[in-house]
Design a protein that fits this description.
CATH architecture of the largest domain: 3-Layer(aba) Sandwich
Bound molecules: phosphoric acid mono(formamide)ester, norvaline
Distance between the termini: 10 Å
Number of strands: 9
Radius of gyration: 19 Å
Strand order of the largest sheet: 7-6-5-8-9
Strand content: 5-15%
Length: 301
């Protein structure tokens, strides 16, 4: 269908579009009932296919869809024929005839691309092994609210070069902020970067130097449970703790997309400290996803 857009990564979005999404997220967050409320999903149904567990993504999307006037249908692969081998190309074409958009959480990112190719409704990435753009959009909103200029901040990533790290890189490429990543050898991010303001080191202290925002994530992502022991060994020294944060800027905010493994990638003290923005991050998932949904339906009949 002409005019259809998807939300798979930041790569398809301009700097201005990302900033507009953030501005709208802020408006939606602060709009009180009746004023500035929009119901672009009135009469629309959004399907949600989740191959992996989820607390925040599932609940914030379901609530956001409801608040925008639509309804959601949660589809576990266990319950639909995909789980018994029905091809994605068939599922995508059939579901496109019922629902108005699909939120998909999957392992291989190519699953999302296949849905885009064969389907005819907007596809939203609710996390793939490669990217988690909804989360990074929420993180950017959170840092803006904390008072940072997100286009000129010094951000830092400590730990696994995973889906979160990849989406942080995409965001830094688009917005132009400085991003220093510290990942152990063998665990580098998968997306490449061109911006001279993005760098990769093995040393967390180097990465955190002068940072205003320090973000981390679990050492073993969903689907990597069997590698947990090996990863615990590889990531020793990559914990976000008070000692590491002493090297950051005077005012530094700490982010974690959750769920967290306290005592591994982050300490309990840091999670519960004033520097931690994790609860605002989680809340902001709701607001940014409403802005994304609104934008995707803006020009659709
Ligand atoms: N941060 C995040 O995506 O959380 P869930 O896995 O609970 O959705
Ligand atoms: N990197 C983590 C993020 C969870 C929200 C995972 O993919 O499991």
């Amino acid at each position: 269908m002409a005019g259809i857009r998807h939300f798979l990564t930041f790569q398809d979005y301009s700097r201005d579009e990302i900033l507009t999404l953030l501005k709208r997220s802020h408006e939606l967050k602060h709009s009180i009932s009746g004023k500035g409320m929009s119901r672009p999903l009135e009469g629309r149904t959004i399907g949600m296919i989740f191959e992996k567990p989820s607390t925040r993504t599932r609940v914030s999307f379901e609530v956001g869809i409801y608040q925008l006037g639509g309804r959601s249908i949660f589809l576990s692969p266990r319950d639909i024929q995909i789980g018994r081998g029905e091809p994605i190309r068939d599922t995508a074409r059939v579901l496109s005839r019922y629902v108005d958009a699909l939120v998909i959480r999957c392992y291989g990112h190519e699953v999302l691309e296949e849905f885009v190719h064969w389907g005819s409704v907007p596809i939203i990435n609710g996390l793939s092994d490669l990217h988690h753009p909804c989360q990074i959009l929420a993180d950017l909103l959170t840092l803006q609210e904390a008072g940072l200029d997100i286009c000129s901040m010094n951000a830092c990533w400590i730990g696994d070069g995973n889906n979160m790290a990849n989406s942080w890189i995409d965001a830094a490429e688009k917005l132009g902020f400085s991003l220093k990543l510290a990942c152990p050898e063998g665990y580098d991010p998968q997306v490449s970067f061109n911006s001279g303001k993005i760098s990769l080191t093995r040393d967390p202290v180097v990465a955190v130097k002068g940072a205003n925002a320090v973000s981390t994530d679990v050492w073993a992502s969903m689907g990597q449970e069997e590698e947990a022991a090996v990863r615990q060994h590889a990531f020793r020294g990559y914990q976000v703790n008070d000692e590491l944060l002493r090297h950051a800027a005077g005012i530094v905010y700490v982010l974690h997309c959750l769920p967290a493994h306290r005592g591994e990638e982050i300490t309990d003290e840091v999670m519960e400290s004033d520097r931690s923005l994790v609860w605002d991050q989680a809340e902001n998932r709701l607001h940014v996803q409403k802005a994304i949904l609104e934008m995707l339906f803006e020009n659709l009949p």
